[in-house]
Amino acid sequence: MSTDALPATLPALYPILAALPEAARQRLIERARKMQLPPGTPVFDERQSCQGFPFVIDGSIRVVKAAPNGRELPLYRVAPGETCVISSACLLGHTPYNARGITETDTTLLVLPSADFQALLAEPAFRDFVFQLFSERIADLMQLIEEVAFRKLDQRLAALLLGKGQRLHTTHQQLADELGSVREIVSRLLKNFAAQGLVALSREQIEILDPAGLRRVAGG
Q: How many helices, marked H, and strands, marked E, lie in the chain?
Protein backbone atom coordinates (compact mmCIF):
# COMPACT_ATOMS: atom_id res chain seq x y z
CA MET A 1 0.00 0.00 0.00
CA SER A 2 1.40 3.39 -0.91
CA THR A 3 1.43 6.33 1.50
CA ASP A 4 -1.17 8.02 -0.71
CA ALA A 5 -3.53 5.09 -0.14
CA LEU A 6 -3.11 5.22 3.62
CA PRO A 7 -6.36 6.48 5.23
CA ALA A 8 -5.86 9.95 6.72
CA THR A 9 -7.63 8.86 9.91
CA LEU A 10 -5.27 5.95 10.62
CA PRO A 11 -2.72 7.77 12.86
CA ALA A 12 -5.52 9.31 14.92
CA LEU A 13 -7.28 5.97 15.34
CA TYR A 14 -4.09 4.07 16.14
CA PRO A 15 -1.61 6.39 17.93
CA ILE A 16 0.68 3.37 18.32
CA LEU A 17 1.82 4.02 14.75
CA ALA A 18 3.46 7.30 15.76
CA ALA A 19 5.53 5.45 18.38
CA LEU A 20 7.01 3.03 15.86
CA PRO A 21 10.45 3.63 14.33
CA GLU A 22 10.26 5.01 10.81
CA ALA A 23 11.40 1.74 9.21
CA ALA A 24 8.74 -0.28 11.07
CA ARG A 25 6.03 2.25 10.25
CA GLN A 26 7.04 2.25 6.59
CA ARG A 27 6.90 -1.56 6.53
CA LEU A 28 3.35 -1.48 7.86
CA ILE A 29 2.32 1.13 5.29
CA GLU A 30 3.83 -0.81 2.40
CA ARG A 31 2.67 -4.28 3.43
CA ALA A 32 -0.82 -3.70 4.83
CA ARG A 33 -3.67 -4.65 2.52
CA LYS A 34 -6.77 -2.47 2.35
CA MET A 35 -10.16 -4.20 2.32
CA GLN A 36 -13.60 -2.64 1.88
CA LEU A 37 -16.43 -4.99 2.82
CA PRO A 38 -20.24 -4.61 2.74
CA PRO A 39 -22.44 -5.44 5.75
CA GLY A 40 -22.82 -9.13 6.57
CA THR A 41 -19.50 -10.17 5.04
CA PRO A 42 -17.59 -12.93 6.89
CA VAL A 43 -14.15 -11.58 7.77
CA PHE A 44 -13.02 -14.87 9.30
CA ASP A 45 -14.60 -18.13 10.39
CA GLU A 46 -13.89 -21.00 12.75
CA ARG A 47 -11.08 -23.35 11.76
CA GLN A 48 -9.74 -20.93 9.16
CA SER A 49 -6.08 -20.03 9.37
CA CYS A 50 -5.35 -16.43 10.34
CA GLN A 51 -3.95 -14.45 7.44
CA GLY A 52 -3.23 -11.16 9.17
CA PHE A 53 -3.72 -8.56 11.89
CA PRO A 54 -6.70 -6.22 11.22
CA PHE A 55 -6.91 -2.49 11.84
CA VAL A 56 -10.51 -1.24 11.57
CA ILE A 57 -10.67 2.15 9.84
CA ASP A 58 -14.43 2.44 9.42
CA GLY A 59 -17.47 0.32 10.30
CA SER A 60 -17.45 -2.57 12.76
CA ILE A 61 -16.96 -6.32 13.06
CA ARG A 62 -19.16 -8.51 15.26
CA VAL A 63 -17.25 -11.46 16.72
CA VAL A 64 -19.37 -14.44 17.78
CA LYS A 65 -19.01 -18.03 18.93
CA ALA A 66 -21.34 -20.32 16.99
CA ALA A 67 -22.90 -23.55 18.25
CA PRO A 68 -23.63 -26.55 15.99
CA ASN A 69 -27.38 -25.80 16.24
CA GLY A 70 -26.85 -22.34 14.73
CA ARG A 71 -27.13 -20.30 17.92
CA GLU A 72 -24.51 -17.62 18.42
CA LEU A 73 -23.03 -16.00 21.50
CA PRO A 74 -21.76 -12.47 20.82
CA LEU A 75 -18.24 -12.07 22.23
CA TYR A 76 -17.35 -8.49 21.34
CA ARG A 77 -17.34 -5.89 18.58
CA VAL A 78 -14.30 -4.40 16.91
CA ALA A 79 -14.77 -0.70 16.16
CA PRO A 80 -12.45 1.85 14.50
CA GLY A 81 -9.31 2.30 16.58
CA GLU A 82 -9.60 -1.24 17.97
CA THR A 83 -8.43 -4.60 16.77
CA CYS A 84 -9.34 -8.24 17.24
CA VAL A 85 -7.89 -10.18 20.18
CA ILE A 86 -8.84 -13.52 18.61
CA SER A 87 -6.84 -12.62 15.52
CA SER A 88 -3.91 -11.68 17.75
CA ALA A 89 -4.17 -14.96 19.67
CA CYS A 90 -4.27 -17.00 16.46
CA LEU A 91 -1.21 -15.19 15.09
CA LEU A 92 0.73 -15.57 18.33
CA GLY A 93 -0.18 -19.23 18.78
CA HIS A 94 -0.14 -20.18 15.09
CA THR A 95 -3.61 -21.67 15.50
CA PRO A 96 -6.84 -21.44 13.45
CA TYR A 97 -9.67 -19.11 14.41
CA ASN A 98 -12.03 -20.37 17.10
CA ALA A 99 -14.78 -17.81 16.46
CA ARG A 100 -16.48 -15.99 13.60
CA GLY A 101 -16.18 -12.33 12.58
CA ILE A 102 -18.86 -10.63 10.45
CA THR A 103 -19.10 -7.01 9.32
CA GLU A 104 -22.09 -5.14 10.73
CA THR A 105 -21.91 -2.14 8.38
CA ASP A 106 -19.80 -1.05 5.42
CA THR A 107 -16.35 -1.69 6.85
CA THR A 108 -12.84 -0.66 5.85
CA LEU A 109 -9.89 -2.66 7.16
CA LEU A 110 -6.14 -2.63 6.87
CA VAL A 111 -4.83 -6.18 7.23
CA LEU A 112 -1.17 -6.63 8.15
CA PRO A 113 0.16 -10.00 6.92
CA SER A 114 1.20 -12.56 9.53
CA ALA A 115 4.94 -12.32 8.82
CA ASP A 116 4.90 -8.55 9.22
CA PHE A 117 2.89 -8.82 12.43
CA GLN A 118 5.53 -11.18 13.84
CA ALA A 119 8.30 -8.76 12.79
CA LEU A 120 6.57 -5.79 14.45
CA LEU A 121 6.35 -7.68 17.74
CA ALA A 122 10.08 -6.98 18.06
CA GLU A 123 9.17 -3.31 18.56
CA PRO A 124 8.37 -2.66 22.26
CA ALA A 125 5.66 -0.10 21.47
CA PHE A 126 3.78 -2.47 19.18
CA ARG A 127 4.22 -5.41 21.57
CA ASP A 128 2.82 -3.31 24.45
CA PHE A 129 -0.12 -2.33 22.25
CA VAL A 130 -0.96 -5.99 21.53
CA PHE A 131 -0.76 -7.07 25.17
CA GLN A 132 -2.79 -4.07 26.32
CA LEU A 133 -5.42 -5.23 23.84
CA PHE A 134 -5.35 -8.68 25.44
CA SER A 135 -5.81 -7.18 28.89
CA GLU A 136 -8.83 -5.13 27.88
CA ARG A 137 -10.56 -7.85 25.91
CA ILE A 138 -10.00 -10.52 28.56
CA ALA A 139 -11.66 -8.24 31.10
CA ASP A 140 -14.63 -7.86 28.72
CA LEU A 141 -14.84 -11.61 28.15
CA MET A 142 -14.69 -12.35 31.87
CA GLN A 143 -17.64 -10.01 32.36
CA LEU A 144 -19.50 -11.82 29.59
CA ILE A 145 -18.80 -15.19 31.23
CA GLU A 146 -20.11 -13.84 34.52
CA GLU A 147 -23.27 -12.55 32.81
CA VAL A 148 -23.98 -15.84 31.05
CA ALA A 149 -23.08 -18.11 33.98
CA PHE A 150 -24.53 -16.25 36.94
CA ARG A 151 -27.38 -14.03 35.69
CA LYS A 152 -30.75 -15.23 34.48
CA LEU A 153 -31.82 -14.34 30.97
CA ASP A 154 -34.60 -12.02 32.18
CA GLN A 155 -32.01 -10.05 34.19
CA ARG A 156 -29.71 -9.78 31.18
CA LEU A 157 -32.59 -8.75 28.91
CA ALA A 158 -33.72 -6.06 31.34
CA ALA A 159 -30.18 -4.69 31.58
CA LEU A 160 -29.86 -4.73 27.79
CA LEU A 161 -33.10 -2.79 27.34
CA LEU A 162 -32.06 -0.19 29.92
CA GLY A 163 -28.87 0.45 28.01
CA LYS A 164 -30.65 1.37 24.77
CA GLY A 165 -32.77 4.38 25.72
CA GLN A 166 -36.48 4.86 26.36
CA ARG A 167 -37.66 3.79 22.90
CA LEU A 168 -35.87 0.97 21.07
CA HIS A 169 -36.20 0.32 17.36
CA THR A 170 -35.18 -3.32 17.20
CA THR A 171 -36.54 -6.80 16.61
CA HIS A 172 -36.86 -9.68 19.07
CA GLN A 173 -34.38 -11.60 16.90
CA GLN A 174 -31.78 -8.83 17.18
CA LEU A 175 -32.14 -8.81 20.96
CA ALA A 176 -31.84 -12.60 21.03
CA ASP A 177 -28.68 -12.40 18.94
CA GLU A 178 -27.14 -9.91 21.36
CA LEU A 179 -27.96 -12.16 24.31
CA GLY A 180 -26.90 -15.41 22.65
CA SER A 181 -30.44 -16.75 23.02
CA VAL A 182 -33.32 -17.60 20.70
CA ARG A 183 -36.16 -15.35 19.55
CA GLU A 184 -38.96 -17.41 21.08
CA ILE A 185 -37.54 -17.14 24.60
CA VAL A 186 -36.85 -13.41 24.28
CA SER A 187 -40.36 -12.82 22.92
CA ARG A 188 -41.86 -14.68 25.87
CA LEU A 189 -39.83 -12.62 28.35
CA LEU A 190 -40.79 -9.38 26.62
CA LYS A 191 -44.47 -10.35 26.79
CA ASN A 192 -44.02 -10.97 30.53
CA PHE A 193 -42.40 -7.54 30.89
CA ALA A 194 -45.34 -6.01 29.00
CA ALA A 195 -47.87 -7.82 31.21
CA GLN A 196 -46.14 -6.31 34.25
CA GLY A 197 -46.35 -2.81 32.75
CA LEU A 198 -42.59 -2.52 32.35
CA VAL A 199 -42.60 -2.09 28.56
CA ALA A 200 -44.97 -1.52 25.67
CA LEU A 201 -44.46 -3.64 22.57
CA SER A 202 -45.21 -2.79 18.96
CA ARG A 203 -43.79 -3.84 15.59
CA GLU A 204 -39.97 -3.59 15.77
CA GLN A 205 -40.29 -1.15 18.66
CA ILE A 206 -40.13 -1.42 22.45
CA GLU A 207 -40.96 1.48 24.75
CA ILE A 208 -39.75 1.40 28.33
CA LEU A 209 -42.61 2.42 30.65
CA ASP A 210 -41.12 1.59 34.05
CA PRO A 211 -37.31 1.97 34.15
CA ALA A 212 -37.24 1.49 37.92
CA GLY A 213 -39.09 -1.80 37.57
CA LEU A 214 -36.68 -2.98 34.88
CA ARG A 215 -33.75 -2.06 37.11
CA ARG A 216 -35.22 -4.24 39.87
CA VAL A 217 -35.46 -7.15 37.42
CA ALA A 218 -31.92 -6.55 36.20
CA GLY A 219 -30.64 -6.54 39.76
CA GLY A 220 -32.34 -9.81 40.58
A: 10, 10
Distance of CA 89 to CAs 31, 49, 52, 96, Å?
21, 12, 11, 9
pLDDT beneath 50: ranges in the chain:
2-4
HEC string of 97-118? CCCEEEECCCEEEEEEEHHHHH
At 138-155, the pLDDT tens digits run: 888 887 777 777 788 899
Pick from 61, 112, 65, 124: nearest CA to 88: 112
**Amino acid at residue number 100:** R
> Residue 54 forms beta bridges with which residues?
111
Classify domain 152-218 by CATH number. 1.10.10.10
- Express each pLDDT in 109-132 by its tens digit: 999 999 999 999 999 989 998 888
Residues whose CB falls within 8 Å of the CB of residue 206, separated by 6 or more in sequence, listed in order? 161, 167, 168, 170, 190, 199, 200
Residue 124 phi/psi, 5-degree rounding, is: -55, -40
For the chain, what are the domain ranges?
A: 3-149, 152-218
5 Cβ contact list (under 8 Å, min separation 6): 34
Q: Is 79 exposed, middle or buried (0-12, 13-18, 19+ CB in 10 A)?
A: middle
Give CATH superfamily name and number for 3-149. Jelly Rolls (2.60.120.10)
